[in-house]
Amino acid sequence: MPALLKCWHFPATASLFAQLVIFLQFLSQTWAAVRLTFRPRVLEVLMNRVILAGVGGYSLINAAYIWVATQHWYANVPGVLQTGPLNFHFAKDVALAFLSSGLALIWAARHADRSAAVCGMSWLCLHALFHIWIWVHRGLPVDFIAFTNLAGIQLPAGLAIWAAMRLPARRVEA
């Protein structure tokens, strides 16, 4: 008989109601111990992995959009048109940067790997810093371009930083 079932052994004279009460007390105490011991950290890691997967998915969608519909991306994303004439080679390079970032973030989410998350977020963070620099040099306007940059560039980068730094670090044993 398994050890778990041995604790549920009841005398034949015990009523069904008494057995149910004892069983529910056992479940309640077990659940409380599990919840207090493991749940907060497990849920935190899960939440960070979901955030990394979301930002990685967003990066992959962005990469596909830039790669497949370069002219549409250039003409319709606020602020891109103001950077100068369309350069297909440069746009494809940006798409590949988003692709590699997205793949690294998806890998990090799948394996809870902080080093892969840092690798994946590096392009997003540098890109976000560059756009902040552009915004400062534009005179800090509060316009649609700034809002689009905040929602589409800075927010994903910030979420990736936050989630990556909260993943458990790998311990290397010598």
pLDDT averaged residue by residue: 86
Residue share in helix: over 70%
Morphology: elongated
- The total count of strands amounts to 0
Query: How many domains?
Result: 1
Helical region count? 7
Structural class: mainly alpha
Task: Produce a short descriptive summary.
The protein is an all-alpha fold. It has seven helices and no strands. The protein has helices spanning 3-6, 16-37, 39-68, 70-76, 88-111, 114-137, 144-166.
Can you characterise this structure?
It is a single chain. With 174 residues, this protein is mainly α. It has one domain (45-166). 77% of the residues lie in helices and 0% in strands. The protein contains seven helices and no strands. The chain has helices spanning 3-6, 16-37, 39-68, 70-76, 88-111, 114-137, 144-166. Helix 3 (39-68) crosses helix 4 and helix 3 packs antiparallel against helix 5. The chain is elongated, with a radius of gyration of 25 Å. Mean pLDDT is 86; it is low at 1-6.
SSE blueprint:
Layout: H1 3-6, H2 16-37, H3 39-68, H4 70-76, H5 88-111, H6 114-137, H7 144-166
Helix pairs in contact: 3-4, 3-5, 3-7, 5-6, 6-7
